[in-house]
Design brief:
This is BHLH domain-containing protein. GO terms for molecular function: DNA binding; protein dimerization activity. Keywords: DNA-binding. The chain is about 55% helix and about 10% strand. A three-stranded antiparallel beta sheet has the order 1-2-3, with no helix packed on it. The radius of gyration is 32 Å and the shape is elongated. The N and C termini lie far apart (about 100 Å). About 10% of the residues have low confidence.
């Protein structure tokens, strides 16, 4: 059996020529969305190498970002091992929430302080 030629397609049907004969199959909307897996052994080595290099760079970037995050977030590391990514994210969230609460308390204190200051003689000046 010969390899199929490029399809001649319409909205409803796909036509493939196999051994000089057209094979008509009905197409569905899902056919356009479906991913067709091609095994690694069937892909050119360059394509696989580029994809692997991209993935290595992506993983290195993620690991670098986590290393930077571990430096700025106070972490509870009682065992002396590197803190996991999940634990790093959980503790970063807790740290950010604590900072937000601190800012809210500061904002409330400042507004309370200045509201008492402004109630006095501040606006009673004669110009």
């Amino acid at each position: 059996m010969a390899a199929p030629t490029a399809p001649v397609s319409s909205c409803m049907y796909s036509e493939w020529m196999i051994d000089g004969k057209y094979q008509v199959t009905e197409r569905t909307h899902e056919d356009n969305k479906r991913y067709k897996h091609v095994p690694h052994k069937d892909k050119p080595a360059q394509v696989v190498a580029r994809r692997n290099a991209r993935e290595r760079r992506r993983v290195q970037a993620v690991n670098s970002a986590f290393a930077r995050l571990r430096k700025v977030v106070p972490l509870e590391n009682t065992r002396g091992k590197r803190v996991s990514k999940v634990k790093t994210l959980q503790q970063a969230i807790e740290y950010i929430q604590a900072l937000v609460q601190l800012l809210e308390q500061d904002r409330n204190w400042i507004s309370h302080y200045y509201s008492h200051k402004l109630e006095g003689d501040f606006f009673d000046y004669n110009f």
